[in-house]
Amino acid sequence: MKYLETIGKIVLLLMQTINILYRRGVLDWKMLINQMVEVGVNSLPITLLIALFTGIVIGLQTALQFARFGALSMLGGVVALTFARELAPVLTGVVVAGRVGSSFTAEIGSMKVTEQIDALRALAVHPLAYLVLPRLLSCLFMLPILVLFANIIGVMGGYWMSHIYTGIDFRTYVDSIALLLTPGDIWGGLYKAFFFGLIIALIGCYKGLNVQGGASGVGRATTQSVVVSIILIFLANCIFSALLFQS
Amino acid sequence: MHFFSFAFSKLGGDNLVRIENLEKSFQGRVILRQINLEVQAGEIMVIMGPSGCGKSTILRHLNGLLLSDGGQIYIDGRKINNLAEEEWDTLRRDIGMVFQNAALFDSLTIGENVAFPLKYHSKLSPAEQMAIVQEKLNLVGLAGKENLLPAQLSGGMQKRVSLARAIAFNPRIILYDEPTSGLDPVMSHIIDQLILKMRNQLGVTSLVVTHDMTSAFRLADKIAVLQQGEVLQIGTPEQIKNSAIPFVQQFIHGEIEEEG
Fold first, then answer.
1. Which one of A124, B71, B97, B98 has the lowest number of neighbouring Cβ atoms within 10 Å?
2. Taking CB atoms and an 8 Å limit, are A114 and B103 in contact across chains?
3. Is the Cβ of B89 closer than 8 Å to some Cβ of chain A?
4. What is the rounded CA–CA span in Å between residue B253 and residue B204?
5. Pick from B97, B73, B103, B81: which is nearest to A123 by CA?
6. At a CB cut-off of 8 Å and minimum separation 6, what does B87 contact?
């Protein structure tokens, strides 16, 4: 029952935030750009690093197995498919949940316990407009962009290592990508990223706005925010994969 | 100049703030019981009582940070219970609040903090906003501190910035939540002088929550003493000093333990 209530409150938070955007037009563009930099630009290095390392091991393991069956000509396509559909969105989602979702909760939670949220309301500035809306929009826009970069770097990492181990040439690798990968695969991954961005922003902000107690409450909420976001990202990924990718 | 004085239905009047039978509970625990208070325009009303007796809860009803469970609140004759959030936002521009821990936005500079309400609710240019920021900081004795961050100021200075931010829109009412708590006697005196200055120079009506006796008697036109969510006595400082109610005498002489 408690979980249902929490889900209801999170959905309500989303609806109220959208409502504010629609009714008031109070979006703070400077704040939005700051958040986009924080969510997108500042998350790019770690996202690319993780995509590169994962691409390397996926490329290596897949190449070694495909070489045994003489299927190396399919390697690029399989690595690209794996990244576009699954790995890039999930890895990026987990990285951003850990890096950005946690900071959303910690920052908003600290503001809550130091009465800064009350101060916002007392100054007639709606906390959802000032705090939640820019974070939500920046996650929705920046997650898909991060995923696009992760796709490119992951696939390149896969090529690099498989080339070293099996000598596969770049042309063969790229040709198999062109053969197997469809725009639908890339779009599917981007839809997922959009939804993961929604999860990260909503959970991060909700946990921050509902912090109870002082510093320990902020710490507890921050941990919960990351754990819940990651679980929901994996759960949503299963559902999206089953719905989007049936071939 | 009152940018948003249209928030009030009429100017002047006998009681600027009137609270009738205000009730509030949190999770089944009664915090306020049948609170009745009246504050006249330009008056400084000090609400005092032990910690946890509901003093701050009363203040938070006056600017809609909390909504009442029962009773009525009138500001300038207008009933303000059950306002929509947009209506509250209009009203809040005429009611400043100084928070117990200043509640400055720690990622913004002092200047940006004071300019914050102007940025969101006025069409003033950045230069005009800066002029108001300098005027208000000057008023609280912090001229030239615009570019510092809140963390670079002492607790007392932060409260003065909080006051400068609260008066950015020239509100008619200022709510002070424990303005002198945690401050040394010298800084408490400075804050008290500022509260008096706001009334004397700007004609602001003030509600001050405190359990600092020195401050209360220095500031108040009227004092309301609360105990366990009920108003025990309302009177002038002189009447409170000479109160026949044992709790009031014990409280002002620091002879009772706080309720926690």
1. B71
2. yes
3. yes
4. 30
5. B97
6. none
pTM: 0.87
What is the domain partition of chain B in residue ranges?
A: 13-94+204-253
Tokens matching residue A147: 């995923």
Distance separating alpha carbons of residues B56 and B35, to the nearest angstrom: 13
Query: Coil, strand or helix: which one is B75?
Result: strand
First-to-last alpha carbon distance for chain A, in angstroms, is 38
Give the residue from B56, B38, B51, B46 showing the smallest Cα distance to B217: B46
Distance CA A228, CA A96 (A): 13
Residues whose CB is less than 8 angstroms from the CB of residue A141 and which lie 6 or more positions away in sequence, other chains included: A36, A40, A197
Is this prediction's ipTM beyond 0.90? no
Contact criterion met (CB below 8 Å) for A151 and A88: yes
Rounded-to-integer distance, Cα A3 and Cα A6, Å: 5
Tens of pLDDT along A142-161?
999 999 999 999 999 999 98
CA-based nearest residue to B210, from B41, B17, B44: B44
Per-residue model confidence as pLDDT tens digits over A202-239: 999 999 999 988 889 999 999 999 999 999 999 999 99
**CA-closest candidate to residue B115, choices B155, B148, B154, B164:** B164
Contact A115 B99 (CB under 8 A): yes
Distance from the Cα of B171 to chain A's closest Cα (Å) equals: 11
Fold held by B13-94+204-253? Rossmann fold (3.40.50)
- Please report the pLDDT score of residue B257 as a whole number: 55
Q: Which residue type sits at A42?
A: N
Q: What is the gyration radius of the CA atoms in chain B, in angstroms? A: 18
Considering CB atoms only, which of B95, B103, B121 is closest to A119?
Answer: B103
A114 touches chain B (CB under 8 A): yes
Specify the 3-state DSSP secondary structure of B222: strand
Q: Partners of B72 in the beta sheet?
A: B20
Q: What is the token pair recorded at B106?
A: 């720690």
Q: In chain A, positions 33-52, which contact chain B (CB-CB < 8 Å)?
A: none
What tokens appear for B98 in the block? 């100084």
Report CA B127 to chain centroid distance, whole Å.
Answer: 29
For B73-131, the pLDDT digits (tens) are 999 888 998 788 888 888 998 999 999 989 999 999 999 999 999 998 888 999 999 99
Q: Yes or no: say if A190 and A90 are a contact pair by the CB < 8 Å rule.
A: no
